[in-house]
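Researcher: I'd like a candidate sequence for this fold, 302 residues long. If you have to choose between options at a position, lean toward the conservative one.
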């Protein structure tokens, strides 16, 4: 079609301008005809039958990942928290259902599964990362055990004046995992009976009972301590073996009063029996062998 149009155009153009005389006229006519053909060709090409297709947009690709919450704290080993990841493409649009891979910078502190569930393993901090394609986002998880309960052992103990016993306190989180390096504050409910130092060593001071407490913040554990003078059991045996209820004077015997306040009994500054004066007090019976265990006894008069 272009070729025939050019021929017609050339003929018409030649007929209008003629060749003129000489070579110049023929050359000019040829040049004009050639230019006309080129113009027609350009016109036909630019006015084709179909429209030019637009360039298709790039497919969405992960460009940013946001992890929520950005920080999390776990207060017990085995405790869990779930993180979520939002993926956006290069146009800032949310990519629903985008595949995300989860990882932990320190699995000895916190692990994470394929769904973003984080589990505390030890005290410390770990960075949890969500990756989609070449994009990633992260959250910081801190594990710090909180004391939920305290046990003190032995839970009960009897000692004598001047004797000591070491108590052991252990702290546990809400999942019953031991809290390492917990610092305890020790206290006695009655320092006239027992005293306790900062390391949990209890000393018997006076006859009676007291509660020793180990505390961390608002959480505490206790042990019941009884300070029993070993000489008391000996005097009780003497009372029972010699018809004590019928003695002429049995003031304070078998009571919680210090032994030095029992009728006829004298003690040293440690509360140990040194003298027993019960002559003429209507004792009736056989002196029990336990009397021989009164280590500080210097005089026995019955």
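Model: Candidate sequence:
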């Amino acid at each position: 079609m272009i070729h025939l149009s050019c021929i017609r155009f050339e003929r018409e153009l030649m007929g209008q301008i003629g060749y003129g005389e000489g070579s110049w006229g023929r050359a000019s006519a040829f040049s004009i005809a050639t230019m006309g053909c080129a113009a027609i060709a350009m016109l036909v090409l630019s006015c084709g039958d179909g429209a030019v297709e637009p360039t298709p947009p790039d497919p969405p690709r992960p460009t940013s990942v946001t992890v929520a919450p950005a920080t999390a704290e776990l207060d017990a080993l085995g405790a869990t928290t779930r993180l979520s990841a939002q993926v956006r493409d290069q146009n800032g649009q949310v990519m629903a259902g985008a595949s995300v891979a989860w990882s932990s910078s320190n699995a000895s502190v916190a692990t994470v599964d394929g769904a973003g569930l984080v589990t505390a393993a030890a005290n410390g901090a770990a960075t949890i990362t969500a990756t989609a394609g070449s994009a990633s986002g992260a959250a910081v998880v801190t594990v710090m055990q909180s004391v939920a309960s305290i046990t003190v052992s032995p839970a009960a103990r009897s000692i004598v004046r001047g004797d000591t016993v070491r108590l052991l306190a252990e702290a546990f989180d809400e999942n019953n995992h031991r809290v390492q390096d917990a610092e305890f504050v020790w206290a006695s409910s009655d320092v006239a009976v027992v005293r306790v130092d900062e390391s949990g060593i209890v000393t018997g001071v006076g006859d009676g009972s007291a509660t020793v407490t180990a505390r961390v913040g608002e959480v505490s554990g206790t042990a019941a301590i009884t300070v029993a003078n070993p000489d008391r059991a000996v005097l009780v045996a003497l009372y029972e073996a010699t018809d004590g209820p019928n003695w002429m004077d049995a003031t304070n015997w078998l009571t919680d009063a210090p032994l030095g306040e029992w009728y006829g009994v004298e003690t040293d500054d440690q509360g140990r029996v040194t003298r027993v004066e019960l002559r003429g007090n209507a004792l009736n019976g056989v002196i029990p062998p336990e009397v021989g265990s009164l280590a500080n006894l210097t005089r026995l008069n019955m």
